[in-house]
Amino acid sequence: MQKELILNLKKEISKKIIGQEEMVDKILISLLTGNHILLEGLPGLAKSLTVNTVAETLGLKFSRIQFTPDLLPSDIIGTEIYNEKTGEFHIKKGPIFANIILADEINRAPAKVQSALLEAMQEKQVTIANVTYKLEQPFMVLATQNPIEQDGTYSLPEAQQDRFIMKVKVEYPSKTEERTILDLLTGTENFDEINIEEILNKDNIAELKKIIREIHIDEKLKDYILNIVFKTREESSYISYGASPRATIAIVLASKANAFLNSREFVIPEDIKRVIYDVLRHRIALTYEAEAEGKTVENIIEEIMEGVELP
Fold this sequence. Notes:
By secondary structure, this protein is an alpha/beta fold. The chain is built from 13 helices and eleven strands. The strands form four sheets. A five-stranded parallel beta sheet has the order 2-5-8-1-9. It has a two-stranded antiparallel sheet with strand order 3-4.
């Protein structure tokens, strides 16, 4: 039954999203583990469209926030407004009060906005005028950022990056996929009129989360994950600082979710390899020496994995 749900979900998403299976799977992994995800890619690679389409299939409240340098925390979480007629203040809630938040070009907002978002991501709550409001579950932030445009952007704080279970690099489609996209968007059918049906709801998602938690992972595989994460913390001329304990937890949960998407009740090494780069790439900081030698985070992760014995 669960397998059929996931197949139907992916089929519905594919009505508008051609290719990008990797991005779709990683978004579903984040959703089904109750986490947030950061999508990094060039403009025009359907990042925002994918998030929007996934939201349509879930029957959840969706909100899109365009991040800009002049954005204020109150533009996201809401503010206290004075009513002249009644002489009273009332709370106007912001777009953060939704289930799925598309934080478009998240690195264009300054630190004060990022700090307001951080409370929502970590605590699943926001504070307005000294009153704390719990956010409705499920709550998920899907953020996008452009890797090449640096003018008018702000680096995300390390603490905030750590709250994203994965940072996924979105690649160009293949020539065959792009031809299909071309036909879809320039053909006789109106793309905007393509109907996306609701496949999952809050109850389904809550049930699937429980199933994923119960997926078995062998103790030896847990040790394998720990050995990799601890390698990132060893003194190195290439690594400034390594991954936090959140990384260890994230790899296990993401591996379980990947096993679930592949209709298995247990984790295998391939599940770990499928998610580990996305989990670690934003949690390892390189030294100037590494950058001077042209080393990338992916190079470092690959070298670490080659040095850790697979059980």
